[in-house]
Design brief:
Belongs to the short-chain dehydrogenases/reductases (SDR) family. The structure is a single chain. The chain contains 8 helices and 7 strands. By secondary structure, the chain is an alpha/beta fold.
Length: about 240
């Protein structure tokens, strides 16, 4: 049975990815940090709808020192990892503290790489391993007021390019999906006027839905995607492209 670890499963994009993959027959390790209720609700739904698949919740704070060991010790067979967790920091760079820099770096870059190291042998055994990062269009284009977030998202994309070459001969593909402005809690700080202005800048004229990100993750995990690696799919409605 094919199994995937989805970090940040309780988030808006993470939960949409879990919904899409469960419907495709995947067993899922549902990682979360604090939103246990959302995980509980998903678990109940999945167990009722997909009784022949396994759904295992894993709670871990990915910036804690023992996070990687705590998470990976609960993984058994594993075909794929989708890194869908994360947070941002709004404000000018000169107001960003070294502590927040370390936090964002560890969450978005160091910990995912350590998880990749720890799960590489399991994914290798699957013969059709898949690794997908949910990055950001800011990792490609950059954004003022989110300079360090743009930096760590750009680092994810650099890792995808490099690591994909290292494991290509093992049948492991490594790709990224870079969302633009998506309807998630990360955009709740926008006022109505801000949202209208943002939507006017997006060629398709609206924010994206989480399902429009999970659709592409689902494609990248399919066996037919074996020739696609080291790439970034930008899903932004044409924004910032």
């Amino acid at each position: 049975m094919k199994a995937v670890l989805v970090t940040g499963s309780s988030g808006d994009i993470g939960s949409s990815i879990c919904q899409a993959l469960a419907a495709e027959g995947w067993s899922i390790y549902l990682h979360y940090h604090s939103n246990q209720q959302r995980i509980t609700d998903m678990m109940q739904e999945f167990q009722e709808r997909y009784p022949n698949q396994e759904f295992i919740p894993i709670k871990a704070d990915l910036v804690e020192e023992n996070a990687v060991e705590m998470l990976t010790s609960q993984l058994f067979s594993l075909n794929a990892v989708v890194f869908a967790h994360g947070t941002t920091e709004y404000g000018l760079l000169d107001a960003l503290t070294p502590e927040r820099m370390d936090y964002l770096w560890k969450m978005h870059v160091k910990t995912p790489i350590l998880i990749t190291q720890a799960t590489q042998s399991k994914i290798h055994k699957s013969n059709q391993g898949r690794i997908v990062f949910i990055s950001s269009v800011y990792g490609e284009m950059g954004s003022s007021n989110e300079v360090f977030y743009s930096t760590v998202k750009g680092a994810q994309l650099a890792f995808v390019k490099a690591y994909s070459k290292e494991v290509a001969s093992w049948g492991i593909t490594v790709n990224a999906v870079s969302p633009g402005a998506i309807k998630t809690h990360m955009n709740t700080h926008f006022s109505l006027n801000d949202l209208e202005e943002l939507e006017s800048d997006i060629p398709v004229g609206r924010l994206g839905e989480p399902s429009e990100i999970s659709f592409w993750v689902k494609q990248l995990l399919k066996p037919d995607s074996a020739y696609m690696t080291g790439q970034t799919l930008t899903v932004s409605g044409g924004w910032l492209k």
